[in-house]
């Protein structure tokens, strides 16, 4: 049976509090198990893929709908409506070659939380990848960049570690996505984060 592993160190710095206040209300509902992160809505969106971990959507999304609230889009990045992985119509993040997008700040716990999303490539070369980077709230890199494949049709990514190593308490971070290659747009939907270490 899974148990939570949480640091009991001091975590209430002004920077962390300021970052958390900026989170949307939808991210602060139903998880009383942590005193160092705001409460979050957790679900098990990938059960049908054999992944029973609980995740929360990163800010600026609802299931199958990327509204982009609080995101910074650059280089031609945009939100488009298309057929998503479950066959319905939904809004997704579209990244032309070289474009990038940065999420709002959110909280992650110590350890190695994970993230997963659906990705695909569209365009003349229907296979590409996305450069994924975790950054501290001040913009400094937190761990190395990771390449996430974007195949020719919607595919659930493998779990990606978003908090390498261990650190005391909680940490405000944000995520950047940059399209690699030079021929295909890449698209991303349902970017879920496991904000805690599951043990």
Notes on the protein architecture:
The protein has one domain: Sandwich (Jelly Rolls), CATH 2.60.120. The longest helix has 8 residues, at 14-21. Strand 5 and strand 6 (89-95) form a beta hairpin. The chain is globular and about 45 Å long. It is built from one helix and 15 strands; from the N terminus they run αβββββββββββββββ. By secondary structure, the protein is mostly beta strands. The strands form three sheets. Strands 1, 5, 6, 9, 12, 13 and 15 form a seven-stranded antiparallel beta sheet that branches.
The share of residues in helices is under 10%
Number of strands: 15
| pLDDT < 50 runs, ≥5 residues | 1-35
Number of helices: 1
Question: CATH superfamily, called what?
Answer: Galactose-binding domain-like
Number of domains: 1
Largest β sheet strand count, sense and barrel closure: 7 strands, antiparallel
- The CATH architecture can be named as Sandwich
How many angstroms separate the termini? 9 Å
Quote the CATH topology.
Jelly Rolls
Q: What share of residues are in beta strands?
A: 35-45%
User: H/E series, N to C?
Assistant: HEEEEEEEEEEEEEEE
- Shape descriptor: globular
Output the radius of gyration: 16 Å
Q: What would the average pLDDT be, to the nearest integer? A: 80
In CATH's first tier, which class applies?
Mainly Beta
Helix/strand-derived category reads mainly beta
């Amino acid at each position: 049976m899974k148990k939570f592993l949480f640091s009991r160190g001091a975590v209430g710095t002004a920077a962390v509090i300021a970052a958390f206040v900026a989170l949307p209300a939808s991210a602060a509902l139903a998880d009383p198990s942590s005193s160092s992160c705001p409460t979050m809505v957790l679900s098990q969106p990938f059960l049908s893929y054999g992944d029973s971990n609980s995740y929360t959507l990163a800010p600026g999304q609802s299931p199958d709908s990327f509204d982009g609230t609080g995101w910074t889009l650059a280089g031609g990045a945009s939100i488009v409506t298309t057929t998503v992985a479950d066959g319905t119509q939904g809004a997704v993040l579209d990244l032309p070659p070289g474009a990038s997008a940065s999420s709002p700040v959110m909280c992650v716990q110590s350890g190695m939380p994970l993230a997963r999303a659906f990705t695909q490539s569209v365009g003349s070369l229907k296979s590409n990848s996305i450069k994924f980077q975790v950054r501290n709230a001040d913009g400094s890199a937190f761990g190395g960049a990771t390449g996430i494949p974007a195949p020719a049709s919607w595919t659930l990514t493998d779990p990606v570690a978003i908090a390498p190593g261990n650190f005391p308490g909680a940490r405000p971070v944000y995520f950047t996505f940059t399209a690699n290659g030079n021929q295909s747009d890449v698209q991303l939907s349902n970017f879920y984060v496991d904000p805690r270490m599951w043990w």
